[in-house]
Amino acid sequence: MKSSYIAPYTAVGITSETKFINHRSEIPAIIDEISNIARTAKFFSEFELPVKLITLTEGALQGFNDEVHDMSAKDYISSIAISVDGPEVQQLKELAIELNVYLAFQARTYDDKYQDRFFNQNILLSPKGEVVLQHYKNTVLYPSEHSTTPHDVLDQWVEERGNGLDAFYPVADTEIGKIGFAMAMDGSYPEYVRGIAMNGGELLIRVSLPAPIAGKFEIQNRAHALNNTMYVLGVLGGNAAIDETSPIDIMGGASHLIDYTGNIIAEKQSPNKSFVAGTVNIEQLREFRITSPIMGWIKDLRAEIIAPIYSKQILPANMNANGTAYNAESYTKEVLNGQVKLMLERGVFTAPSAPGWEDRIVGSIPKED
Q: Which pTM value belongs to this model?
């Protein structure tokens, strides 16, 4: 039960320019630019305590051309997706070694076991350049994002990895604490973060949330920190331009470090190249968890009365069992529409009183007069 002492340290989140690339050959130059930002951020963040963790945001390496152009999975895999064993990740491993930090980043990756499908991954590298954690995004930004989730290939996923917490909410037990990820939309579902907490997570890395909902980023992250007694490092992307000529802020919010009581202890609001840095004290968190009679909330969960909430299937599993099943239009019409109707049928949603509401359900085709 006893663990090694972890001294307080500085965690850094980097905001870089989001570039919408057309080919993976563009990534090395992007990593070179990010590396220069990371070196500067580390230098100026170590005036108090050493930097032990640096986090990049979603889209830092590849941008979001798959979403903007509604690319097919096959086209995206052939041109932009990368492999965890590829040269791009090797370049980041070298940066982690050079800076002697844990380096967290996001990438859309392919796996030969899943043809015509790609995943959205968070990856954590150790100061030795080892891959110590791979998290696969559990909920994508429907309907625009076409990456596959574990739930979309659930039967195959469970056969290969089991159905325990590690299969869906993995946590790395590192020299700087137990670290987990919640990427973008994952953090809009409290259950996914609770899964990280129940798997021992002490520091949650949450990256990105697009405008106009990015204003909810702070609200969600403070709630995650408070409800699960964990640190949350939330990092948002910066300026981006689809046509490379008119960059604008696509995230619309502030990066921050939140402590285990829900208080913001460091924040930075800037769409330009920037960083946020703050102190993480894992020993203090661990002491708080075992001594607070109230605020270690998860120790008091009543599992028996929680389980019935999720006893009925909601979103169908295995939607991408044999390939990426939907583009943006078909997902909206064939899936989102049906999910709203399911909630209405079960009495979870109540229909509005204004006439014609059936035609306003997301994905509905308005009736002709």
A: 0.96
